[in-house]
Every structure is written in structure tokens, then in C-alpha cells.
Amino acid sequence: MTSEPVAADLSLASLFAGWAMADEVQRRVAAAGFDDVRFNDGVVNQHLVGGPLTIGALAERLGVSQQAASKAVADLERRGYVERAPDPDDARARLVGLTDQGRAVIAAAREHRAAVVGELAAHLGERRVESARRLLLDVVAELGGAAAVRGRRVRPPQ
Q1: Which of 49, 72, 112, 122 has a CB 3.0–4.6 Å from the CB of 28, allowing a cystine?
Q2: CA 46 to CA 76: how far, in whole Å?
Q3: How many Å apart are CA 65 and CA 70, to the nearest integer?
Q4: For residue 133, which of 156, 148, 149 has the smallest C-alpha distance?
Q5: What values do phi and psi take at 92, rounded to 5?
Q6: Greater model confidence, 40 or 131
Q7: Which of 28, 32, 6 is nearest to 17 (CA)?
Q8: Looking at residues 6-29, what average pLDDT do you find?
Q9: How far apart are CA 78 and CA 86, in angstroms?
Q10: SS3 category, 61
Q11: Which pTM does this prediction carry?
């Protein structure tokens, strides 16, 4: 099926495709038992994959205030996806890290993203899907976003 629902330029088409894929992954993650997870949780979690961070470091990476980062962390902590622990290098600071449940939801999301891509490749063709992936990554690089992607420092637009 190649019908175009709206006359969308590349920016909108990639945005709509991303939203559609994110919605499908979100639906599958919820069906896998993580029904309290929201898309925005991933914006925080991506920064914790490499290891625990202080609230200040997390806020800086997210581009938000420490108060906003603390609020997001408190919500994730309440739902069991992150935990706070003393910073061994600074007795005044606490580190925020993923719990086993937090790592499990990330693994589930990765698994379901791969499944969606596999299904798209089966329906649309592997070459087309790979070509689209490469094109979009080239666009990211061309517009200066590759370092943020590589460094897991992607933020929603301001």
C-alpha cells in the first residue's frame, strides 16, 4: 500500500512514522506487562542505560531543571523503574539508576522495536526498510544530531 494519507513533507512523514511505530511498540510493551510505562519514560531511561547519574547530571542531559528531573525520577521510582542510592564519591549526592524492572522494560522495548521493524521488512521489503533507516540517520547526521544519538542524549525538540 503506497497511498499517502496527507501531503506530508519529509519532516512530517518521518514524525508520523515515528509516532506510529512508537504507538505500536508502546502497545506491545503494555501487553507484555508494563502497562504503566509511558513514551516519555524512555527519554529519561536512555540516560541511565550507561549507569547511574546524579539528579544534576540527569537534569543537564535532559535539558531541564533539577526540579523537573527530580519529579520525573520520583515518578519512575514510585513505579519501580529506578532507584536512588548514595554516591560513593560524594556523601551529599544520590545516584539514580535503573532497577531490574527498569532494565526489563528497556529490554522489552528493544525486543518489540526489533519485531516491528522485522514485520515492516516482511511487508514492505527489507531493502526499503533499510533504505529508509539509512536515509533518516543521514538526515539526523546532516542536521547535527548524530552525536546526541550516539551519546544517548536525545531530547524532544524545544
Answers
A1: 112
A2: 13
A3: 9
A4: 149
A5: -80, -20
A6: 131
A7: 6
A8: 91
A9: 18
A10: helix
A11: 0.86
Q: Which stretches of the chain are DSSP H helices? A: 10-31, 39-48, 55-62, 66-78, 100-124, 126-142, 146-150
Measured CA to CA, the distance from residue 156 to residue 84 in angstroms comes to 25
For residue 118 the three cell numbers come to: 522485522
Strand arrangement of the beta sheet that strand 90-98 belongs to: 53-54, 90-98, 82-87
Q: Are 48 and 96 in contact (CB under 8 A)?
A: yes
Written as one letter, the residue type at 14 is: S
pLDDT for 128: 98
Closest C-alpha among 137, 158, 157 to residue 149: 137
3-state secondary structure at position 92: strand
| Cβ–Cβ < 8 Å for 11, 142 | no
Q: At what angle do helices 10-31 and 100-124 cross, to 10 degrees?
A: 120
